[in-house]
Amino acid sequence: MSAVLTIAMALTGTATAAQTVPTQYAAGHFYATPQTASGQTLRLIVDTGGGGTANLYWFTEATAQKLHLTPAGCKLDGHPIKAVTAPVYQKQAALPPALGPCAGKVLVNTENYSYDGQLGASYLGTRVWTFDYPHQALRAEGSAWRHDAAAKPANLGFQKDDTGGVTQYFPRIVMRVDGIPINMLLDTGATAHPTAAGKAAAGTETEADGMGVTSYITTRMFDIWHKKHPDWRVVENGDDLLGAQFSARLIEVPKVQIAGWTVGPIWFTERPNKAFHKMMARIMDETPEGAVGGNVLSHFSITIDYPKAKAWFTCAQGCVAAAPVAK
Question: Nearest to residue 59, comparing CAs of 76, 79, 44?
């Protein structure tokens, strides 16, 4: 049983129940859709690679204003953070409450997005979550949760301090290509905006705004793969999510091994080295080479046990058991 669930049981004196989060599944992304007591439905992207702090999820400033939420005093390591009091939700369409020093609060993000907010790594990291891709459902698991007998485990890495406490909840997972282990971010929010050429080649499903999901790989690893396997399909200028600053290529990898399963083919979208070797490396326990996103994860029902630093993958479609890795 995880430490968080044990603490919750000690506080309540009873076992904790699983909670299905109201969810919209769109082009590979999960959006939590809680409803406030006043009848407003929110749309919050669920992103294991997304930000946040103090174990809180966040709203955009426009959403906080729309809901007339009250500014709330909250400090992290002695420093105030911009937060509001969480709205009251309808009982059958609520979010699990945030845990930690700022419980009952919601962060405010001043940037503009097409959605109302985000359930990111800091908020997700206090619980056990199931991303059930085949049934397009999201659950915060209760204390009775046990992994499915058909599930295969994968160890996760999290950045920790000198005492062993987790400081950042961005999960590192190892995938294998050509039998070579590669550190990756487990990223339910990895987003694509394929060009016409990219969409035609990869068949990426997109929403009305052209957004879909993908997996990312650094230019460094992209070039290694392309040099070693010149027969692997490559699409120049296959994704324009980063605009004029970076013309991303796509590469099709025939087989990827993850959590004891083999899936493929999988298209990876190129990202600048610094996006992972610098930015993400600062908040992960080891330097990643990219992110495993929805085009891989959609083959599975995945439970992420943050307190135990383990993920369980149950094959839903298009995956076969991988050969055991030689020790």
Answer: 44
Q: Name the domain boundary from 116, 140, 164.
A: 140
Number of H helices, E strands in the chain: 7, 28
What CATH number did the domain enclosing 303 receive? 2.40.70
Question: Which stretches within the chain are classed as H helix?
Answer: 3-12, 61-66, 121-124, 196-202, 219-228, 273-274, 294-297
Structure tokens at 162: 């000198």
What tokens were used for 264? 């493929």
User: What's the start-to-end Cα distance of the chain, in Å?
Assistant: 28
SS3 111: coil
Expressed as residue numbers, the domain containing 212 is: 152-321
Note the pLDDT of residue 78.
79
Residue 8's pLDDT is what? 41
Q: How far is 73 from 75, CA to CA, in rounded Å?
A: 7
pLDDT at 283 over 60: yes
